Amino acid sequence: MPLYLLSKPITLHFLTQLRSKNTDQINFRKTLVRLGRIIGYEILNTLDYTTVEVETPLGTKAKGVYIYDLENIVIINILRAATPLVEGLLKALPTARLGVVAASRKETEVSNGFPQDMEVEIFYSKIPQISSKDNVIIADPMIATASTMRKVINLIKPYNPKRIYVVSVIISEYGLRRILSEFPDINIFTISVDPELDNRGYIIPGLGDAGDRAFG
Question: pTM of the predicted model, to two decimals?
């Protein structure tokens, strides 16, 4: 299964800060940036590369690695919550081209269980040119029912990129199953898979509304 669960002590440390209700707006946003940078470096390890030979300042030869896929990165920022996460990704992947998708979901509350799907409207998108050589990273810090993410993936799929990555901080078990059942070739990078959704579709235990906590 193409799931990369980044549950190392440092990522869990930052996740704990995000979960805490006592973390203020500035530190919440800075912590999202830090996690974006870490995830970006983890993605680097999955990109295609070739071996090269370089000459050192001492006039000797050394074999090395050139990750040529670094020149073929597109990051899609799902506004607004993903903006700090994307800022961190760009620190690790500075040559990436950037696209934006503005989406809103209609909040739904059910009496039993959780809403299986949310009505999502994409009211603006600006996507750079994408080719079959490109690796596309779609960033959204929280994936609950995956209604928004599925819609954005379907927006990107017709471009036929080389790979599609989904980057989040927390994804629900339901959202994870839903994405992988529909898009089994998607690579998912996350810090935690949380077990539940409440009757409004919020992730439990989660961290609240990431956009509100990052931007007030």
Answer: 0.94
Q: What is the pLDDT of residues 127-185, one digit of tens each?
A: 999 999 999 999 999 999 999 999 999 999 999 999 999 999 999 999 999 999 999 99
Return the CATH fold of 3-215.
Answer: Rossmann fold (3.40.50)
Nearest to 78 by CA among 173, 163, 148, 30: 148
Q: How many residues does the chain have?
A: 216
At 17, which helix (H) or strand (E)?
A: helix 9-19
Dist CA 209 CA 114 (whole Å): 17
The 3-state secondary structure of 19-69, one letter per residue:
HCCCCCHHHHHHHHHHHHHHHHHHHHCCCCCEEEEEECCCCCEEEEEECHH
Two tokens, residue 6:
């980044």
Q: Beta 61-66 vs 50-55: how paired, if at all?
A: antiparallel
Q: CA nearest 77: which of 143, 140, 148, 160?
A: 140
Two tokens, residue 117: 């799907």
Question: What whole-number percentage of the chain has pLDDT above 90?
Answer: 86
Q: What are the domain boundaries of the chain?
A: 3-215
Q: Token digits for 9?
A: 């002590």
pLDDT beneath 70: ranges in the chain:
1
Pair 30, 24: CB distance under 8 Å: no
